[in-house]
Amino acid sequence: MTDRPGIVITGASGRMGQMLIKTVLASDKCRLVGVLERTGHDWIGQDIGTATGGQPVGVAVTDDAVEVFAKAQAVIDFTAPAATVGFAGLAAQARAVHVIGTTGLSDDDLKAINAAARHAVIVRAGNMSLGVNLLVQLTKKVAAALDEDFDIEIIEAHHNQKVDAPSGTALMLGEAAAEGRGVDLKDVSDSGRDGITGARKRGDIGFSAIRGGDIVGEHDVLFAAAGERIVLRHLATDRAIFARGALKAALWGQDKAPGEYDMMDVLGI
Ligand SMILES: NC(=O)C1=CN([C@@H]2O[C@H](COP(=O)(O)OP(=O)(O)OC[C@H]3O[C@@H](n4cnc5c(N)ncnc54)[C@H](O)[C@@H]3O)[C@@H](O)[C@H]2O)C=CC1
Ligand SMILES: O=C(O)C1=N[C@H](C(=O)O)C[C@H](O)C1
């Protein structure tokens, strides 16, 4: 039984942290060997089962990443950019697969993550669900088939606690649309319109973000031309879809060579 990979979950009390812990505990393909929270959090030292209102599971919440990563074959990390960059170095030192779901990463953060991937397997994606990763492929195909008579707009909606915009998923979709069109997203991205913006520039890829209530995550890719519109849509109604994808990535990464991978690699699509 001990050959099942040991998994550490970071951000144990977060929306995704709690869903990931549930998913790992319910799986017969892995073991939960540690859960991490930020220093000063009320749950530090408590059993994660009792902290979440259930029976003890024999895993105490810790704030010591070095100690807990040493027990891990994989670290699944949905936290915040500064935390994730630190964890990338520490997971690489422990030679643990690092599955990164955290979004809002800067170019410098991405460089640091890429450097850590020289020593260990990192799987990173702004969205770990099967549906969104298929939508990314569809977006690339549709964008390649249409010319700039079709304006591309990406509209996303999330809960009122989300701190980054556009969402990681919206950026994945934007990158896919830009790739399909053979352009660099940095040159055509248009987000945060406000005031007298002027007419829409032909060829731009626009982003709009809605924040409200408990929306789990909704993404539309709109191709709008004179006289017709195509809308590609993904609606997430349960965070379990992200947790399932992340666990799949953690298991997939066990026999891979060091490097940075994404969910397309994991799903083989
Ligand atoms: N790639 C994907 O499929 C998905 C990505 N996300 C992303 O995951 C991230 C987290 O989302 P939520 O769970 O909704 O946020 P949340 O705010 O509910 O949870 C984040 C948790 O990380 C903890 N944390 C922050 N710094 C830490 C540190 N240094 N050490 C240990 N723990 C630390 C916080 O205390 C908190 O418990 C966001 O960036 C979000 O966009 C969310 C859902 C799906
Ligand atoms: O913060 C969230 O909740 C989500 N974040 C990811 C993103 O930024 O796209 C994935 C999902 O949409 C939920």
TrEMBL record:
GO biological process: diaminopimelate biosynthetic process; lysine biosynthetic process via diaminopimelate
Catalyses which reaction(s): (S)-2,3,4,5-tetrahydrodipicolinate + NADP(+) + H2O = (2S,4S)-4-hydroxy-2,3,4,5-tetrahydrodipicolinate + NADPH + H(+); (S)-2,3,4,5-tetrahydrodipicolinate + NAD(+) + H2O = (2S,4S)-4-hydroxy-2,3,4,5-tetrahydrodipicolinate + NADH + H(+)
Annotated positions binding NAD(+): G11, A12, S13, G14, R15, M16, E37, G101, T102, T103, A125, G126, N127, M128
Dihydrodipicolinate reductase N-terminal domain: residues covered: 7-128
GO cellular component, one term: cytoplasm
Annotated EC: 1.17.1.8
Top-level taxon of the source organism: Bacteria
Pathway assignment: Amino-acid biosynthesis; L-lysine biosynthesis via DAP pathway; (S)-tetrahydrodipicolinate from L-aspartate: step 4/4
InterPro entries for the chain: DapB_C (IPR022663), DapB_N (IPR000846), DapB_N_CS (IPR022664), DHDPR_bac (IPR023940), NAD(P)-bd_dom_sf (IPR036291)
Dihydrodipicolinate reductase C-terminal domain residues: 131-267
SUPFAM superfamilies listed in its UniProt record: Glyceraldehyde-3-phosphate dehydrogenase-like, C-terminal domain (SSF55347), NAD(P)-binding Rossmann-fold domains (SSF51735)
Sites where the protein binds (S)-2,3,4,5-tetrahydrodipicolinate: H159, G168, T169
Protein residues bound to NADP(+): R38
Gene Ontology MF terms in the entry: 4-hydroxy-tetrahydrodipicolinate reductase; NAD binding; NADP binding; oxidoreductase activity, acting on CH or CH2 groups, NAD or NADP as acceptor
Top enzyme class: oxidoreductase
Residues annotated as signal peptide: none
Subcellular compartments: Cytoplasm
Protein family (similarity comment): Belongs to the DapB family.
Described purpose of this protein according to its UniProt entry: Catalyzes the conversion of 4-hydroxy-tetrahydrodipicolinate (HTPA) to tetrahydrodipicolinate.
Complex formation: Homotetramer.
Listed name of the protein: 4-hydroxy-tetrahydrodipicolinate reductase
Native organism: Yoonia rosea
Gene: dapB
